[in-house]
Amino acid sequence: MTAEEFEQVKECARCAAVEQIHDFIILMVKEGKEDSQDQEHGFAVEVIREALNRYRFESAESTIRKYVDWLVRRHAELNHVMQQDDTYSIRHNAIVLEYIVKKPMSHVQIEKKLGISDGTFKRYIDICIHELADILFLNYISDNSV
Question: CA separation (Å) from 102 to 44, 91, 105, 112?
């Protein structure tokens, strides 16, 4: 198998995994059970956390990068809606600095840049990942409500 064929197989596997996750989430939403929604949200949080961890290692064309970029852009767009939340933009910047920027920064550097403590940084990252999951969850619901 050539390197090109291997990359094609790898991309097919990624696409299949994304489709399976999408189908699973749609199935859970259609069931309409509250506990399944909680499980789905928890699942979405873990998927997003894993995607963020892999972001820098993925190629620019990868599905993971495309989805993460879309989610982060949507999160940024919601900033104007969240004007009463003074920490929203700080949380957004924390995610971008932690996972998205090309040159990784240490937590200490990020905390200093944002003017927050270590505990606050970790809490903001968790909150922001949940917000990204909310965006993803609401997008799937709206896709299926038509």
Answer: 24, 18, 9, 19
Token readout for 53 is 């961890």
User: In a 3-state reduction of DSSP, which class is residue 89?
Assistant: helix
Per-residue pLDDT reduced to its tens digit, 99-142: 999 999 999 999 999 999 999 999 999 999 999 988 887 754 44
Residue in the structure block whose two tokens are 């200093």: 112
- The CA distances from residue 81 to 18, 64, 77, 86, in Å, are 29, 26, 8, 11
Amino acid at 50: E
Distance of alpha carbon 107 from alpha carbon 1, whole angstroms: 42
Q: What is the pLDDT of residues 22-78, one digit of tens each?
A: 666 666 556 554 455 566 677 888 989 999 999 999 998 999 999 999 999 999 988
Give this prediction's pTM: 0.68
Round to whole Å and give the CA distance between 75 and 101: 16
**Exposure string for 82-91, b = 16+ CB within 10 A, e = fewer:** eeeeebbebb
The structural domains of the chain, with segments of one domain joined by +, span 3-144
